[in-house]
Specification:
- This protein has a single domain, classed as Aminopeptidase.
- Helix content is about 30%, strand content about 30%.
- The chain has four helices and seven strands, in the order βααβββαβαββ.
- A seven-stranded mixed beta sheet has the order 1-2-3-4-5-7-6.
């Protein structure tokens, strides 16, 4: 079940994202670290009513942020659509023990359905240049790879920008 996150979910979301960070680091993907993602980011997501969780047997196994806010890092990108009516996906995570079962697909189906139902012109996101699995995931869903941006507190390597136009 996908539902809006609550403040009392943050502890479980942090456990989930720490497990994901650890799993990625074991695979030499240095995308998330002690600075990101953090509980403050998730608290802000809840305040903006943009954080969703995926539950399995009443346990939070995944999360996704569906936001209308464009981060400053995105302003220099040459997007496929104008910067007027877009949503942005952030912090998509599925617990490593639950990966490979279609749960990330389920969260993205939910986000894309939300975008279509609310007449957004596109979905924008970024994924780490060293995370080939994520790149393939989005490209198979029809997202077009554009330029790249940097998040210095996360990595010296770039993050690739993607957009899906409706």
């Amino acid at each position: 079940m996908i539902r809006k996150a609550r403040y009392d979910d943050i502890e479980n979301i942090m456990k989930l994202t720490r497990a994901c960070a650890h799993h990625m680091i074991q695979q030499q993907i240095f995308q998330w670290n002690e600075y990101y993602p953090n509980s403050e980011a998730f608290e802000n997501d809840i305040e903006r009513d943009e954080l969703y969780v995926l539950e399995k047997h009443s346990n939070v196994i995944g999360c996704i942020v569906i936001s209308t806010f464009m981060d400053d890092e995105y302003t220099s990108e040459s997007w496929l659509t104008s910067n007027v009516n877009n949503i942005y996906i952030h912090r998509l995570a599925i617990h490593p023990n639950e990966q490979g079962q279609g749960f990330a697909q389920q969260l993205m189906d939910f986000a894309e359905g939300f975008a279509i139902e609310n007449d957004y012109s596109s979905i924008r996101l970024d994924t780490f240049s060293q995370n080939k699995r994520n790149q393939k995931f989005y490209e198979l869903r029809g997202y077009k790879r554009l330029g790249h941006i940097f998040f210095p507190k996360q990595s010296d390597d770039p993050f690739y920008c993607y957009e899906l136009v409706f």
